[in-house]
Amino acid sequence: MAGDVDCELVTFGPRPGLVRESGGLRVRTLRPRTYLYGHPAYPVTPSLLMALAGAHVIHTHHMRSAPSRLAALVARARRQRTVVTDHGLTGGDWAGLLPRLFDRFLLVSAYSARELGAPPRRTRVIYGGADPHRYAPDPAVSRDGVLFVGRLTPHKGVDRLIEALPPGGHLSVVGTSGHDPALPERDYPLLLRQLAEGRDVRFLGPAPDDSLPDLYRRAAVLALPSVERTCYGREVRVSELLGLVVLEAMASGTPVVASRLGGLAEVVQHGVTGFLVEPGNVAELRERLDQLLRDPALAARLGRDARELVLDRFTWRACAERCLAAYADLLRPGGRRPGRAGRQDVTGDRA
Fold it and tell me: What is the pLDDT of residue 348?
């Protein structure tokens, strides 16, 4: 959206400064005085107050994070407009007061809106996106195998995926481990390697950003087998608010097999852009993977339709336009609080 409005991203890190990107976006990094609870989502610095001065719309990420809470209070005092996009951070909401401080909730899926309990009259679904130029199919590249991209943590269901790998198929696992400090989850990567013994599975570790497009376009199918109950018996209350890796794969012309949970069912159209399976159902997951691996014509058709859907609804440009429309609605004369069209500030730990 930086090409349309004066836009600044406020973030946090050890080296403060201001950088202007080639597209016009300003990135302002603030050095925190401390982190509440030692958590990266709770940076505290008084310099945030100055960074927000003059903004007409303040768009925060993670409603319950410390910067969002402070921004909401300051904006209310200054009569600035506020919107929020939440990504699942837990915590209190000041006995219901915190949500009332935001003019709009711009959320990544209808599922996310339900989980957050966002007020329907103030909520818009903006989804997320993929860059269709960066993530694009290459007709000269042959496709083969199953790809997983994500964190190696139990709720992602990679253990089920390894068990579901069809005979003769191979699996490439891209992602980082070490997300679970306590046992037994801490040993999840070890469990995955044990399950992979005797199967054609490669653990590629974290992939550099510039290698991801090629991984997507070389895969016959992307699998995202997230679960509601992990292999350790733990319930997962909130899983996959959206699933950006699904959009990146679809933009690459790669069909998707994903669990029917969270926001995934709002993105993957069953039988059109891929298949949805019941979470944790190894037999159904194996059947759908095998179907796509054995039928390249079907996989190609689903992949083409998947890319068309991304081009139609799920580019970052489309996401930006949904945000800009919400801002314009807030700044329209006659709104609940007076405001002026102008600079938008986006605060949070991601954009």
Answer: 46
The SS3 call for residue 231 is coil
DSSP letter string over 93-149? Answer: -TTTHHHHT-SEEEES-HHHHHHHT--GGGEEE----B-TTTS---TTS---SEEEE
C-beta neighbour count of 198 within 10 angstroms: 6
β strands within 14-103, DSSP E: 17-20, 26-30, 34-35, 43-44, 57-61, 81-85
Q: For residue 222, what are the CA distances in angstroms to 132, 138, 276, 279?
A: 17, 16, 12, 16
Q: What is the pLDDT of residue 341?
A: 35
Alpha carbons 12 and 46: distance in angstroms, whole number: 12
Cis peptide before 184 (omega within 30 of 0): yes
Share of the chain above pLDDT 90, in %: 92
Q: Which domains does the chain show, CATH number per domain?
A: 7-128+315-347 (no CATH), 146-313 (3.40.50.2000)
Please tell me the distance from the alpha carbon of residue 224 to that of residue 240, in angstroms, as a whole number.
Answer: 10
State residue 351's pLDDT score: 33
**Whether the Cβ atoms of residue 258 and residue 243 lie closer than 8 Å to each other:** yes
pLDDT in tens, 69-128: 999 999 999 999 999 999 999 999 999 999 999 999 999 999 999 999 999 999 999 999
User: How far apart are alpha carbons 308 and 257 in whole angstroms?
Assistant: 17
Mean pLDDT, each 10-residue run in order, the chain (351 residues): 95 96 96 95 96 96 96 96 95 95 98 96 98 97 97 97 97 92 95 97 95 98 98 94 97 98 97 98 98 98 98 97 96 58 45 33
User: Cα dihedral sign for 276, 282, 287, 290?
Assistant: positive
Quote the CA–CA distance of 77 and 198 in Å, as a whole number. 63
Q: What is the largest CA-CA distance in the chain?
A: 67
At 174, give phi and psi (nearest 5°).
-115, 125
**pTM for this model (two decimals):** 0.92
Give the integer Cα–Cα distance in Å for 117 and 75: 22
